[in-house]
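Researcher: Go.
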Amino acid sequence: MTSDARTERLPRLLPRRLPSFTGFFGNLLVLVVVAWLLTNLAKTPGDFFQILLFGLSLGAIYALVALGYTLVYGILELINFAHGDVFMFGGTISAVFILEVFSLGSHEHWYVLWPVVAGCVVISMLICGILNVLIEMVAYRPLRNAPRLAPLITAVGMSFILQDVVLGWRGPNYITVPTTLPRSNIFAVGGVTYRWDELIVLLVTVPLLLGLVYLVQKTKQGKAMRATAQDREAAAMMGINVNRTISFTFLVAGALAGAGGLIYVLWQTQVRFDSGFRLGLISFTAAVLGGIGNLPGAVLGAVLIGLIQAFNEGLSWSAPGSDWTQSIVFSILILILVFRPEGLLGEKTPEGQ
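Model: Structure:
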Protein backbone atom coordinates (compact mmCIF):
# COMPACT_ATOMS: atom_id res chain seq x y z
CA MET A 1 0.00 0.00 0.00
CA THR A 2 1.42 3.40 -1.00
CA SER A 3 1.74 6.37 1.33
CA ASP A 4 -0.87 8.25 -0.75
CA ALA A 5 -3.36 5.45 -0.22
CA ARG A 6 -2.70 5.43 3.54
CA THR A 7 -3.16 9.22 3.63
CA GLU A 8 -6.51 8.94 1.84
CA ARG A 9 -7.73 6.47 4.47
CA LEU A 10 -6.87 8.65 7.48
CA PRO A 11 -9.97 10.91 7.42
CA ARG A 12 -12.15 7.79 7.33
CA LEU A 13 -10.31 6.06 10.17
CA LEU A 14 -10.16 8.95 12.63
CA PRO A 15 -13.93 9.42 13.12
CA ARG A 16 -14.23 5.70 13.89
CA ARG A 17 -11.69 5.93 16.72
CA LEU A 18 -12.90 9.15 18.33
CA PRO A 19 -16.31 7.91 19.55
CA SER A 20 -14.68 5.25 21.74
CA PHE A 21 -12.72 7.93 23.61
CA THR A 22 -15.57 10.42 23.74
CA GLY A 23 -17.99 7.72 24.77
CA PHE A 24 -15.72 6.63 27.61
CA PHE A 25 -15.20 10.21 28.77
CA GLY A 26 -18.93 10.96 28.61
CA ASN A 27 -19.87 7.80 30.48
CA LEU A 28 -17.26 8.53 33.16
CA LEU A 29 -18.60 12.05 33.62
CA VAL A 30 -22.18 10.79 33.88
CA LEU A 31 -21.15 8.18 36.46
CA VAL A 32 -19.42 10.84 38.59
CA VAL A 33 -22.49 13.10 38.49
CA VAL A 34 -24.87 10.23 39.29
CA ALA A 35 -22.66 9.15 42.22
CA TRP A 36 -22.63 12.71 43.55
CA LEU A 37 -26.43 12.96 43.29
CA LEU A 38 -26.98 9.60 44.96
CA THR A 39 -24.65 10.58 47.79
CA ASN A 40 -26.61 13.78 48.38
CA LEU A 41 -29.88 11.84 48.18
CA ALA A 42 -28.67 9.45 50.85
CA LYS A 43 -27.36 12.21 53.14
CA THR A 44 -30.22 14.74 52.84
CA PRO A 45 -33.21 13.23 51.00
CA GLY A 46 -35.55 16.05 52.02
CA ASP A 47 -33.30 18.75 50.58
CA PHE A 48 -32.69 16.67 47.47
CA PHE A 49 -36.37 16.41 46.52
CA GLN A 50 -36.99 20.03 47.53
CA ILE A 51 -34.30 21.18 45.13
CA LEU A 52 -35.52 18.78 42.45
CA LEU A 53 -38.97 20.41 42.44
CA PHE A 54 -37.43 23.88 42.28
CA GLY A 55 -35.19 22.82 39.38
CA LEU A 56 -38.19 21.63 37.38
CA SER A 57 -39.85 25.05 37.65
CA LEU A 58 -36.60 26.79 36.75
CA GLY A 59 -36.13 24.48 33.78
CA ALA A 60 -39.65 25.27 32.56
CA ILE A 61 -38.76 28.96 32.29
CA TYR A 62 -35.52 28.13 30.50
CA ALA A 63 -37.55 25.97 28.10
CA LEU A 64 -39.70 28.92 26.98
CA VAL A 65 -36.56 30.82 25.99
CA ALA A 66 -34.69 27.79 24.60
CA LEU A 67 -37.60 27.00 22.28
CA GLY A 68 -37.26 30.47 20.78
CA TYR A 69 -33.61 29.80 19.99
CA THR A 70 -34.34 26.41 18.49
CA LEU A 71 -37.30 27.64 16.40
CA VAL A 72 -35.29 30.41 14.76
CA TYR A 73 -32.27 28.17 14.24
CA GLY A 74 -34.45 25.48 12.69
CA ILE A 75 -35.74 27.94 10.09
CA LEU A 76 -32.75 30.21 9.40
CA GLU A 77 -29.79 28.39 11.01
CA LEU A 78 -29.27 31.65 12.90
CA ILE A 79 -28.36 31.98 16.57
CA ASN A 80 -30.56 34.91 17.60
CA PHE A 81 -28.51 36.24 20.50
CA ALA A 82 -31.04 39.06 20.96
CA HIS A 83 -33.66 36.53 22.04
CA GLY A 84 -32.67 36.63 25.72
CA ASP A 85 -33.09 40.40 25.68
CA VAL A 86 -36.54 40.05 24.14
CA PHE A 87 -37.29 37.91 27.20
CA MET A 88 -35.92 40.71 29.42
CA PHE A 89 -38.04 43.26 27.56
CA GLY A 90 -41.12 41.14 28.23
CA GLY A 91 -40.28 41.03 31.92
CA THR A 92 -39.76 44.80 32.01
CA ILE A 93 -43.04 45.51 30.22
CA SER A 94 -44.83 43.17 32.62
CA ALA A 95 -43.28 44.87 35.65
CA VAL A 96 -44.32 48.29 34.36
CA PHE A 97 -47.90 47.16 33.81
CA ILE A 98 -48.05 45.51 37.24
CA LEU A 99 -46.65 48.57 39.04
CA GLU A 100 -47.83 51.59 37.07
CA VAL A 101 -50.89 50.54 35.07
CA PHE A 102 -52.69 48.07 37.33
CA SER A 103 -51.02 49.14 40.61
CA LEU A 104 -51.08 45.64 42.03
CA GLY A 105 -50.03 45.05 45.61
CA SER A 106 -48.91 42.01 47.55
CA HIS A 107 -52.24 41.47 49.26
CA GLU A 108 -54.73 41.77 46.42
CA HIS A 109 -57.65 39.36 46.40
CA TRP A 110 -57.30 36.52 43.91
CA TYR A 111 -60.36 37.57 41.89
CA VAL A 112 -58.65 40.93 41.27
CA LEU A 113 -55.18 39.52 40.80
CA TRP A 114 -55.52 36.68 38.34
CA PRO A 115 -57.49 38.44 35.57
CA VAL A 116 -54.83 41.15 35.61
CA VAL A 117 -52.03 38.57 35.44
CA ALA A 118 -53.79 36.84 32.54
CA GLY A 119 -54.05 40.20 30.78
CA CYS A 120 -50.35 40.84 31.38
CA VAL A 121 -49.52 37.47 29.81
CA VAL A 122 -51.39 38.42 26.63
CA ILE A 123 -49.89 41.93 26.52
CA SER A 124 -46.35 40.71 27.09
CA MET A 125 -46.65 37.94 24.49
CA LEU A 126 -48.13 40.34 21.92
CA ILE A 127 -45.55 43.11 22.43
CA CYS A 128 -42.57 40.74 22.42
CA GLY A 129 -43.91 38.84 19.42
CA ILE A 130 -44.25 42.05 17.41
CA LEU A 131 -40.83 43.24 18.60
CA ASN A 132 -39.23 40.00 17.44
CA VAL A 133 -40.90 40.30 14.02
CA LEU A 134 -39.57 43.84 13.65
CA ILE A 135 -36.09 42.68 14.59
CA GLU A 136 -36.24 40.00 11.90
CA MET A 137 -37.49 42.44 9.25
CA VAL A 138 -34.99 45.20 10.03
CA ALA A 139 -31.86 43.34 11.16
CA TYR A 140 -31.94 39.82 9.73
CA ARG A 141 -33.95 39.78 6.52
CA PRO A 142 -31.61 42.11 4.57
CA LEU A 143 -28.71 39.81 5.53
CA ARG A 144 -30.41 36.52 4.69
CA ASN A 145 -28.08 35.80 1.78
CA ALA A 146 -25.01 37.33 3.42
CA PRO A 147 -22.20 35.24 4.94
CA ARG A 148 -23.26 33.67 8.24
CA LEU A 149 -20.97 35.88 10.28
CA ALA A 150 -22.89 39.03 9.30
CA PRO A 151 -26.29 38.13 10.84
CA LEU A 152 -24.51 36.66 13.86
CA ILE A 153 -22.77 39.98 14.54
CA THR A 154 -26.05 41.78 13.92
CA ALA A 155 -27.76 39.56 16.49
CA VAL A 156 -25.16 40.51 19.10
CA GLY A 157 -25.65 44.16 18.18
CA MET A 158 -29.42 43.90 18.56
CA SER A 159 -28.87 42.37 21.99
CA PHE A 160 -26.94 45.42 23.18
CA ILE A 161 -29.45 47.80 21.55
CA LEU A 162 -32.33 46.25 23.50
CA GLN A 163 -30.32 46.41 26.71
CA ASP A 164 -29.51 50.08 26.11
CA VAL A 165 -33.15 50.89 25.36
CA VAL A 166 -34.29 49.45 28.69
CA LEU A 167 -31.28 50.98 30.48
CA GLY A 168 -32.19 54.42 29.19
CA TRP A 169 -35.88 53.87 29.93
CA ARG A 170 -35.78 52.37 33.43
CA GLY A 171 -32.21 52.91 34.59
CA PRO A 172 -29.59 50.46 35.92
CA ASN A 173 -31.39 49.37 39.09
CA TYR A 174 -33.64 46.36 39.50
CA ILE A 175 -37.37 46.88 38.96
CA THR A 176 -39.00 45.18 41.93
CA VAL A 177 -42.62 44.08 41.82
CA PRO A 178 -44.74 43.03 44.81
CA THR A 179 -45.04 39.37 45.71
CA THR A 180 -47.92 38.43 43.46
CA LEU A 181 -47.79 34.65 43.31
CA PRO A 182 -48.87 32.89 46.53
CA ARG A 183 -45.90 31.50 48.47
CA SER A 184 -47.88 29.19 50.75
CA ASN A 185 -47.18 25.44 50.72
CA ILE A 186 -49.30 23.01 48.75
CA PHE A 187 -47.95 20.10 50.75
CA ALA A 188 -45.19 19.30 53.22
CA VAL A 189 -44.16 15.65 53.39
CA GLY A 190 -41.06 14.38 55.16
CA GLY A 191 -39.46 17.80 55.18
CA VAL A 192 -40.23 18.35 51.46
CA THR A 193 -42.45 21.36 50.76
CA TYR A 194 -43.93 22.44 47.45
CA ARG A 195 -45.18 25.99 47.09
CA TRP A 196 -47.96 27.38 44.96
CA ASP A 197 -45.67 29.74 43.05
CA GLU A 198 -43.55 26.84 41.80
CA LEU A 199 -46.65 24.94 40.68
CA ILE A 200 -48.10 28.01 38.95
CA VAL A 201 -44.91 28.38 36.91
CA LEU A 202 -45.46 24.84 35.60
CA LEU A 203 -49.20 25.36 35.10
CA VAL A 204 -48.50 28.32 32.83
CA THR A 205 -45.45 27.04 30.95
CA VAL A 206 -46.49 23.43 30.27
CA PRO A 207 -49.65 24.37 28.29
CA LEU A 208 -47.61 26.87 26.28
CA LEU A 209 -45.03 24.20 25.46
CA LEU A 210 -47.73 21.68 24.49
CA GLY A 211 -49.49 24.34 22.41
CA LEU A 212 -46.27 25.00 20.51
CA VAL A 213 -45.81 21.30 19.76
CA TYR A 214 -49.41 21.13 18.49
CA LEU A 215 -48.87 24.25 16.37
CA VAL A 216 -45.75 22.86 14.71
CA GLN A 217 -46.97 19.29 14.26
CA LYS A 218 -50.69 19.61 13.49
CA THR A 219 -51.48 22.97 11.89
CA LYS A 220 -51.10 24.20 8.34
CA GLN A 221 -48.78 26.99 9.46
CA GLY A 222 -46.70 24.46 11.37
CA LYS A 223 -46.32 22.36 8.24
CA ALA A 224 -45.16 25.47 6.40
CA MET A 225 -42.60 26.09 9.14
CA ARG A 226 -41.28 22.53 8.90
CA ALA A 227 -41.14 22.69 5.09
CA THR A 228 -39.27 26.01 5.21
CA ALA A 229 -36.83 24.58 7.73
CA GLN A 230 -36.05 21.63 5.44
CA ASP A 231 -35.66 23.53 2.17
CA ARG A 232 -36.63 27.18 1.71
CA GLU A 233 -36.38 27.13 -2.07
CA ALA A 234 -38.47 23.99 -2.42
CA ALA A 235 -41.04 25.40 0.02
CA ALA A 236 -41.31 28.58 -2.07
CA MET A 237 -41.79 26.49 -5.23
CA MET A 238 -44.69 24.68 -3.53
CA GLY A 239 -46.46 27.99 -2.88
CA ILE A 240 -45.37 28.67 0.69
CA ASN A 241 -44.76 32.33 1.51
CA VAL A 242 -41.29 31.96 3.01
CA ASN A 243 -41.03 35.52 4.34
CA ARG A 244 -44.38 35.28 6.07
CA THR A 245 -43.49 31.88 7.53
CA ILE A 246 -40.20 33.19 8.92
CA SER A 247 -41.96 36.24 10.38
CA PHE A 248 -44.54 33.96 11.97
CA THR A 249 -41.73 31.90 13.49
CA PHE A 250 -40.20 35.02 15.03
CA LEU A 251 -43.67 36.04 16.25
CA VAL A 252 -44.12 32.72 18.06
CA ALA A 253 -40.58 32.78 19.48
CA GLY A 254 -41.05 36.32 20.74
CA ALA A 255 -44.42 35.48 22.27
CA LEU A 256 -42.85 32.59 24.20
CA ALA A 257 -40.09 34.91 25.41
CA GLY A 258 -42.71 37.45 26.51
CA ALA A 259 -44.61 34.83 28.48
CA GLY A 260 -41.35 33.65 30.02
CA GLY A 261 -40.46 37.22 30.98
CA LEU A 262 -43.75 37.71 32.82
CA ILE A 263 -43.51 34.40 34.65
CA TYR A 264 -39.92 35.16 35.61
CA VAL A 265 -40.71 38.59 37.03
CA LEU A 266 -43.72 37.26 38.97
CA TRP A 267 -41.62 34.42 40.40
CA GLN A 268 -38.36 36.28 41.10
CA THR A 269 -40.11 39.66 41.73
CA GLN A 270 -37.36 41.65 40.00
CA VAL A 271 -35.87 42.31 36.59
CA ARG A 272 -33.10 44.51 35.21
CA PHE A 273 -31.79 45.60 31.81
CA ASP A 274 -29.16 42.83 31.73
CA SER A 275 -31.30 40.03 33.18
CA GLY A 276 -31.92 38.51 29.76
CA PHE A 277 -28.27 38.29 28.72
CA ARG A 278 -27.22 35.70 31.28
CA LEU A 279 -30.50 33.80 31.17
CA GLY A 280 -30.43 33.85 27.39
CA LEU A 281 -26.97 32.29 27.28
CA ILE A 282 -28.06 29.58 29.73
CA SER A 283 -31.17 28.88 27.62
CA PHE A 284 -29.04 28.76 24.48
CA THR A 285 -26.85 26.18 26.21
CA ALA A 286 -30.01 24.21 27.01
CA ALA A 287 -31.05 24.30 23.35
CA VAL A 288 -27.62 23.08 22.25
CA LEU A 289 -27.58 20.39 24.94
CA GLY A 290 -30.91 18.98 23.81
CA GLY A 291 -30.18 19.40 20.10
CA ILE A 292 -30.75 22.85 18.63
CA GLY A 293 -33.49 22.75 16.03
CA ASN A 294 -35.26 19.97 17.95
CA LEU A 295 -38.28 21.06 20.03
CA PRO A 296 -38.36 18.11 22.49
CA GLY A 297 -34.58 18.40 22.74
CA ALA A 298 -34.83 22.07 23.76
CA VAL A 299 -37.29 21.20 26.53
CA LEU A 300 -35.13 18.28 27.71
CA GLY A 301 -31.99 20.41 27.70
CA ALA A 302 -33.75 23.22 29.59
CA VAL A 303 -35.00 20.87 32.29
CA LEU A 304 -31.54 19.32 32.67
CA ILE A 305 -29.88 22.74 32.90
CA GLY A 306 -32.48 23.86 35.44
CA LEU A 307 -31.81 20.79 37.54
CA ILE A 308 -28.03 21.20 37.23
CA GLN A 309 -28.24 24.80 38.40
CA ALA A 310 -30.62 23.96 41.25
CA PHE A 311 -28.51 21.02 42.44
CA ASN A 312 -25.29 23.01 42.23
CA GLU A 313 -26.67 25.96 44.18
CA GLY A 314 -28.82 24.01 46.62
CA LEU A 315 -27.16 20.73 47.55
CA SER A 316 -25.04 20.92 50.67
CA TRP A 317 -22.51 18.11 50.14
CA SER A 318 -19.55 18.89 47.85
CA ALA A 319 -21.49 21.31 45.66
CA PRO A 320 -19.33 24.05 44.08
CA GLY A 321 -21.97 26.70 44.87
CA SER A 322 -23.69 29.52 43.02
CA ASP A 323 -20.41 31.25 42.10
CA TRP A 324 -19.62 28.32 39.83
CA THR A 325 -23.01 27.99 38.12
CA GLN A 326 -22.10 29.88 34.97
CA SER A 327 -18.77 28.09 34.69
CA ILE A 328 -20.48 24.71 34.97
CA VAL A 329 -23.19 25.59 32.46
CA PHE A 330 -20.76 26.91 29.86
CA SER A 331 -18.40 23.98 30.44
CA ILE A 332 -21.34 21.77 29.51
CA LEU A 333 -21.79 23.87 26.36
CA ILE A 334 -18.13 23.38 25.41
CA LEU A 335 -18.24 19.64 26.08
CA ILE A 336 -21.39 19.24 23.99
CA LEU A 337 -19.94 21.22 21.10
CA VAL A 338 -16.73 19.17 21.20
CA PHE A 339 -18.02 15.66 21.82
CA ARG A 340 -21.64 15.66 20.64
CA PRO A 341 -22.42 18.79 18.60
CA GLU A 342 -25.81 17.42 17.49
CA GLY A 343 -27.01 17.38 21.12
CA LEU A 344 -28.82 14.69 23.08
CA LEU A 345 -31.82 14.33 20.75
CA GLY A 346 -30.44 15.95 17.60
CA GLU A 347 -29.54 14.08 14.46
CA LYS A 348 -26.15 14.07 12.81
CA THR A 349 -26.00 16.16 9.66
CA PRO A 350 -23.80 15.45 6.65
CA GLU A 351 -21.58 18.38 7.68
CA GLY A 352 -21.05 16.84 11.11
CA GLN A 353 -20.22 13.32 9.90
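Model: Confidence is low (pLDDT under 50) at residues 1-19.
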